[in-house]
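Lecture 7 notes: from sequence to structure.

We start with a single chain of 157 residues. Read the sequence below before looking at the structure.
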Amino acid sequence: MKHAWTALICTAMTLAFGGATKATAQQTQQSSYQAMSDKFFAMLQQGKGSDAVEYLLNTNPWVKKVPDQVENLKTQFASVVTLLGPYISHTILVETKVAGTFVYQHYYVAYDRQPISIRISYYKPGTSWMCYSVAFDVKLPEDIQSAADAKLPLDVK
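Now the structure, written as tokens:
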């Protein structure tokens, strides 16, 4: 009886608030991959770069087929603090969603010495999100400079 009552309430809410329920479902789906990004950055803030990468990649069963690449990436992330100093902050630069099953996030991440770029992609082949890829590069300052220079007016009189 309790399950029937719950189902009846859910059905009534769906009929009454159809659009709101759909929006809530989309927020729940988004929050699952965003929660993974948030946890990843919380671990980076704690200086646990290797653990952060391992956490994300453990959501993807396919990475077990490339253990050398995973270890290499974990080592690279672990060395960021040594090379660039402590983590300061992060800001999302862009997020692109495709077909409700793929999400690309590009972050500006500030460290004491310089900012870097971190890119995270998520894929949802079924009902659960998994990390499709995670990468970083230290050439973000050059990328910013190139983008700014591309906007220079060349026909100044």
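The chain has one domain: 31-149. Keep this in mind for problem set 3.
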